[in-house]
Amino acid sequence: MSRAIKIGWCSLLVSVVVLGMKAGAYLLTGSVALYSDALETVINVVAAAGALTALWFSELPPDDNHPYGHHKAEYLSAVVEGALVLATSAAILHGAWDGWNHPHRPTAPFLGIGLNAAAGVINLLWALVLLRCGRRWKSPALTAGGKHLMTDVWTTGGVLMAFALVPLTGELRIDATVAALVALHILWVGYRMLRESVGGLMDEVQDPDSLNRLRRAISENADGAIEAHDLRSRTAGSVTFVEFHLVVPGQMTVEASHAICDRLEAALREEVGEAVISIHVEPEPKAKLVGVPVL
């Protein structure tokens, strides 16, 4: 079992435990804000199960139908999770509307606050773990899961604020107002998650800093070549795809040019980790003088 899948199983377990705590808090209080918090956690459980499935599928080796592997399964999971976040915000807004029209004072507030606060702390700690692992391992599924859990943390913060303000002000509609504000924040996060995930599915170009690191690695490790041009790169899950043309002197032997390519592939993998690299070797007349110069 890979480390990413182990993290996926832990995410599912954490989501189930937190759901139990938040559902208990809602049943004790009847709060609309706590209802919105518990509802989002139901989505967390579904999303964690989907992410776990995507992580398992993405690690399958290439086959005849998927010669480039199954890495994009993680983007599909992230898209589904972003859609679930949007659906959650709509459900919370609906609950907030009902709470605004039929306000009531929450019962057993202190016990509800305690359960909800403890669940929020668990979510915060696990969200930080997911975000760190997602960035380190270049896993869209884990990163999306971490961002989703952070929206849950915001929800919990809003709920606690509502519970503090209702007894201080005596205004019962604060409960529903806070739930609505939290839903709008979740809506924005869900949009960003969808935007990033769809970008990955569409092979969106890497950010300028990543491309500059690739250019530098090529320039510093292509001794014997003339230039590299038409550099293109994309990511699919944890794998980076890199391709470019390498111009070498016309009299250079195949063996010598192959040695340069081997050196470049090692340097690029050192830079980006797991990678699929395609280098098209060309003779000197193909030089464009606008590509990556060799130092």
Automatic annotation (TrEMBL):
Q: Report which superkingdom the organism of origin falls in.
A: Bacteria
Q: Does the keyword NAD apply?
A: no
Main location as per UniProt: membrane
Q: Where in the cell is it found?
A: Membrane
- Similarity field: Belongs to the cation diffusion facilitator (CDF) transporter (TC 2.A.4) family.
NCBIfam families referenced in this protein's UniProt entry, alphabetically: CDF
Q: What is this protein called?
A: Cation diffusion facilitator family transporter
